[in-house]
């Protein structure tokens, strides 16, 4: 089957999802990111790889952190960056979206970084654009957030070196999480020994077992002897529905405290994609503790986004 | 006509002598060698030992500064540059194995300036093969061996860290 992310030479030309990406491409992205990490220590934190290229950040859904790190990444590659905050109109999304893209293409865009509340919107754009234009998915609906997945993989590899012996637990609102999905696909491709999902039944999507994920509703059992814990943000709007009783109740059962963390391996790392809700899914003592690598994730995220943009921009046409 | 290659160790000895002479003119406290990845990095490793240099050396990888990125992309794994000293005000002796078009040298100089403002940069190469496309000239050179387009020198190092050079026909379009 044709993979919309790869060109006819098998090179990465769009990054839409970690699903369906071959292991060598995932590894190539992580290796390339490794060359960008030391740049942050230099006096001039820029390299001229994308000089003269135009990167358009198209955020149809609000985001500060992801948009900023994409902007920093593009600027460190010497690209010109344009931020467009477009509130998606509720009707005729498909048509107006592609019209927007056509207009920006006429302004000589080279890379579109797209966040959209509709799953699949970046795919639609990728199909629509000419071959010299590249699309990077910065989060689409509940579907995928591949650069977050990749920076999580980078962080795990940085601290744990090898995936083959690792047990990784993803905890929280897995049902609504595009990060969880991107992590699960990437972890599977990179050969993690065991992937666990820990959440109340109301926040677990169907089909996890078929993806090879072990499902736990009890946090103590789920965290037993894990090497990596990926905490997910509990979105406040979920509280308003019937999915959860209260944030205090949630914290009692699924909030990561020192006591619960003690079930994991002593050298387990704690990750979180941010923004954190302290006292809801994670206790401050853990978030600020020795095992947390949450701020490392932010730094690696810039390098991973630089790697993705420079790799797609370098794909042959 | 088959080209008779000089011994790489002879070229190295000649380059080393040239670098020693250059070092004599510079303040020893502020001189650092920087090798251009990968051949230049090997040469620097050996020079540091042979010349008993105390100041830390660096490695520059020009992959992120190349002017042909849009043609070749970022395909192979690139090792990051490593400059473990303050560049500001230092005398840098940049070392490369082969000097050809001068484009790598240009990229390396650009990259060095992103670490700081050196007092001076000199260039030492093992072989100058001609074919310059930029106004670049080495301060120290192991030997001048003109070579036609389509062929390249390949530097290798054996287990005793001794150098050898060979000729390689390039693939068309590479």
UniProtKB/TrEMBL annotation, chain A:
Domain of life: Bacteria
Keywords: Pyrimidine biosynthesis, Transferase
GO CC list: cytosol
Catalysed transformations (reactions): carbamoyl phosphate + L-aspartate = N-carbamoyl-L-aspartate + phosphate + H(+)
Binding-site residues, L-aspartate: 93, 178, 233
Alphabetical GO biological process terms: 'de novo' pyrimidine nucleobase biosynthetic process; 'de novo' UMP biosynthetic process; amino acid metabolic process
Gene Ontology molecular function terms on file: amino acid binding; aspartate carbamoyltransferase activity
Coiled coil region boundaries: none
EC number: 2.1.3.2
Name of the top EC class for this enzyme: transferase
Pathway note: Pyrimidine metabolism; UMP biosynthesis via de novo pathway; (S)-dihydroorotate from bicarbonate: step 2/3
Residue spans crossing the bilayer: none
Residue sites binding carbamoyl phosphate per the record: 65-66, 115, 145, 148, 274-275
Keyword Transferase: yes
Span of domain Aspartate/ornithine carbamoyltransferase carbamoyl-P binding: 14-157
Domain Aspartate/ornithine carbamoyltransferase Asp/Orn-binding: residue ranges: 165-311
Assembly and oligomerization: Heterododecamer (2C3:3R2) of six catalytic PyrB chains organized as two trimers (C3), and six regulatory PyrI chains organized as three dimers (R2).
HAMAP family: Asp_carb_tr
Family recorded in the similarity comment: Belongs to the aspartate/ornithine carbamoyltransferase superfamily. ATCase family.
Protein's job: Catalyzes the condensation of carbamoyl phosphate and aspartate to form carbamoyl aspartate and inorganic phosphate, the committed step in the de novo pyrimidine nucleotide biosynthesis pathway.
Protein name in the entry: Aspartate carbamoyltransferase
TrEMBL record, chain B:
Transmembrane helix as UniProt keyword: no
CDD domains: PRTases_typeI
Pfam families, sorted: Pribosyltran (PF00156)
SUPFAM superfamilies given in the database record: PRTase-like
Species the sequence originates in: Advenella faeciporci
Molecular function in Gene Ontology: glycosyltransferase activity
Annotated coiled-coil segments of the chain: none
Keywords: Glycosyltransferase, Transferase
Residue ranges constituting the Phosphoribosyltransferase domain according to the UniProt record: 11-137
Domain of life of the organism encoding this protein: Bacteria
Protein name per its UniProtKB record: Bifunctional pyr operon transcriptional regulator/uracil phosphoribosyltransferase
InterPro entries, alphabetized: PRTase-like, PRTase_dom, PyrR_bifunctional
Keyword Transferase: yes
